[in-house]
Design brief:
alpha/beta, Rossmann fold, 2 domains, seven-stranded mixed beta sheet, 13 helices, 12 strands
Length: 317
């Protein structure tokens, strides 16, 4: 009897060790960005997870068609994936509605509590956990940095996507910040890539001196064209993520999205080893990078103050 009792847990461990887990990745965008995927998989490899050996990854991409998200989430539920990874606020909310059983790790939704994704950062409860960046809290800092970079800036365009559930709170924050900075704001909206040309035409018409592009998956996917439109319009632009600046945008201030995907691997590892998602606190970024593109500044005829350059974490020549 003692021998059989000792053998039982060993048999369970062997069964778990031999299992190939299925991870489902749900994205509002077109694909799982290569740099983010590499960081995610590197984080998994560091914890003993190797794709094709002990897990397989199924990716469902909505191609920026929000109406497809529920169907794609349902497909992952039908596949009985062991865990879902989601990379935007919209995808996270759809995934949460699709299942109360499958663990969900959110990677890059902003303001997780404010949008109703979780009840608390410290104890999320339910089947959702992961990471959340401070989208709303960063608006004031981003607007302030843009005003520092652009002399005599008195009118700022705020480019947002009305389909993004996190944007209403950020627009309210922009209104409050505008009063503190003594600037006027012009709200400009673009729901689809086709609307971006009109958006920049509107900004030129209203003579904004700079624009804050509120972080959004569609804007990130269109970052090269947006940089070109801003340059053609002669409008200095502030973004949330470095990828925009690397694509030719003027400047950005925000967290490292690639690092967030690497950290998400830790949540996946803990959950697949038995941790309950609701017991794992939601983490937020602790480091925010200021990136400035001097080549773009020169093309805009803009001289970035040395005091601002000295605070930049990265300057692209």
């Amino acid at each position: 009897m003692a021998g059989s009792l000792l053998a039982a847990p060993l048999a369970v461990d062997a069964e778990q060790a031999g299992k190939v887990y299925t991870m489902g990745y749900l994205t509002l965008g077109r694909f799982f960005a290569e740099a983010s995927r590499n960081a995610f998989q590197q984080g998994l490899r560091e914890r003993g997870w190797v794709e094709g050996q002990n897990f397989v990854l199924t990716i469902k991409a909505a191609q920026f068609k929000s109406e497809q998200l529920p169907e794609l989430a349902a497909e992952l539920v039908q596949l009985k994936v062991d865990i879902m990874i989601v990379d935007t606020a919209e995808a996270a909310l759809v995934a949460k509605r699709s299942t109360h059983v499958i663990p969900i790790v959110a990677v890059t939704p902003a303001d997780a509590v404010a949008i109703g994704l979780v009840g608390s950062l410290a104890r999320p409860g339910g089947n959702v956990t992961g990471l959340s960046y401070l989208g709303t809290e960063l608006i004031g800092k981003q607007m302030g940095l843009l005003k520092e970079a652009v002399p005599n800036l008195s009118r700022i365009g705020i480019l947002s996507n009305p389909a993004n559930p996190t944007h209403p709170a950020r627009l309210r924050e922009a209104d409050a910040t505008a009063k503190a900075l003594a600037v006027r704001i012009e709200r400009i909206m673009a729901r689809t890539p086709a609307e971006l040309d009109r958006a920049f035409t509107d900004m030129t018409r209203t003579r904004v001196g700079g624009v804050l592009v509120v972080s959004d998956p569609m804007f990130a996917d269109e970052r090269v064209r947006m940089a070109q439109l801003a340059s053609k319009s002669g409008i200095p632009a502030m973004y949330a993520f470095r990828s925009h600046v690397a694509a030719g945008g003027l400047m950005s201030y925000g967290p490292d999205l690639v690092d967030l995907h690497r950290r998400a691997a830790g949540y996946v590892d803990k959950i697949l080893k038995g941790a309950k998602p609701g017991d794992l606190p939601i983490e937020q970024p602790t480091k925010f990078d200021l990136v400035i593109n001097l080549k773009t500044a020169k093309a805009l005829g803009l001289t970035i103050p040395q005091s601002l350059l000295g605070r930049a974490d990265e300057v692209i020549q």
